[in-house]
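Morning. Coffee machine broken again, so started the prediction first thing and wrote up yesterday's gels while waiting. Chain of 499 residues, entered below exactly as on the submission form.
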Amino acid sequence: MSEALAHSGPAHAVPKDGSPLPSTSSPGVFEQMSAVADAVLYEGYLLYPYRRSSAKNRVRWQFGVLSPRDWVEADGPVVPGVSGSADSWYQQTECLLRVLRPDASLRVRLRYLQMQRKQVEETGPDGSHRPVESLRTEDGTVHLTFDEAVPREIDVTIAPADLFQGEHTVPAGASAGEDVEPLPGQAGRVVRRRQEVRASTTVFVERLAPDLSRLRVRTTHTGPAPDPRTARDEVLRASLIATHTLLAGEGVEFVSLIDPPTDLRAHAAACRNEFTFPVLGGEDGTGHLLLSAPIILPDHPQVAPESPGDLHDAGEIDEILTLRTMLLTDEEKREARATDPRAAAILDRVDTMPPEVFARLHGAVRSLAPAAPAPQGAAPSVERPAWWQEGADDGLSPTTDTVLVDGVPLGGGSRVRLCPRGRGADAQDMFLVGRTAEVAAVFHDVDGSVHLAVTLDDDPASELHTWYGRFHYFRPDELEPLESAPEAAPSETRRSGGR
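Came back before lunch.
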């Protein structure tokens, strides 16, 4: 469907003299994040089994939804959070950036989906058309009525002279439209209709120090509110869906809010991100690109190179989804193909996947040393990785082992406070800073590192989690003992993380 590739034309911030402003940053800089950004855009667009009849595909559009304010707040004000899993009427990103030179410029790209109603219509005896839920053409193809979506992009480029000259606001909506596709044999037609989406994006840069600034990007739904009793499915037709923002520039460098430098932690903590959260993009160790998404991500997120394509569920495992898709019956595949062109593309990719591509989906180890060469004359029957040691697990006991932290031996039953570090920590763990927990076990990894399994004190399901072994895992340096260090070292043997 060619319309799926359409997007709004670039919208530029206008200088105070009213003259148009050309883009000053590299046009390809955002393409470095295209795979991750598209995964955010289409997360949950259409979940396995990719059929209209599937119950979970009747409740869609769960992230980054911006709708009219009066409708969203009909039952009270929205409660801001850094995740966009709740509907809102606005989305706000705040982040820190270093301005490295006087001619620095900034580029902001807003991306979202505009809902598109695909209505199948049957041709009557008199040549008129009537809406139907499904229609089979003479070639055997089935066409289903369904809600699709069109990707939209709005670019805002701010010139050096205007960087600190107040707010820059541009329209960020999309126009209404209608496309008609005749079906073979004059059996009927497919009509795709889009309602107007009204929104605006405001960019503001505040100088905090000679080389440090706070950037705010706020996107607001500006359309008229429907009746408060209007169903969500109807309101979505004029909403922004899967809204997220990409930021880049020339002569600027973004600062990680997950792991800011020590001298910038107070400024980072003062940033207010609502219904979205910014993370550094591009290669690890760089700060020229930033993605602010309604889905919690770590700095420098990447799509695994083994992934052959988008499956519309970035929280799942490609191998599992591919296997499940392979097991769909012919009838189920026919319904999926009739549901949406993107579902048909997934089926085509799975049905024609070469064995070597499928084999790569089983997993990859990236952090361990490569296998050591076998000694000359050794039997090549089983390859062992470099970290393999016969009997290395002998003597390890996760429930009774301890590890020394700040002079305190921590093991099963120890009480701790959680202090996850920004660098290398799971993004979800950062929400547990300051919470208290109980250690359940000490685990030694094959690469020689140690992790402690803990259950949260205030988790009402902690006993159940312990019963079936579901824990949070932290490194020793991410835990603060709640007991004092003993005056003398106990006699039992402690392990500090080595084999």
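The two ends are 57 Å apart (CA to CA). Going to sketch it on the whiteboard this afternoon.
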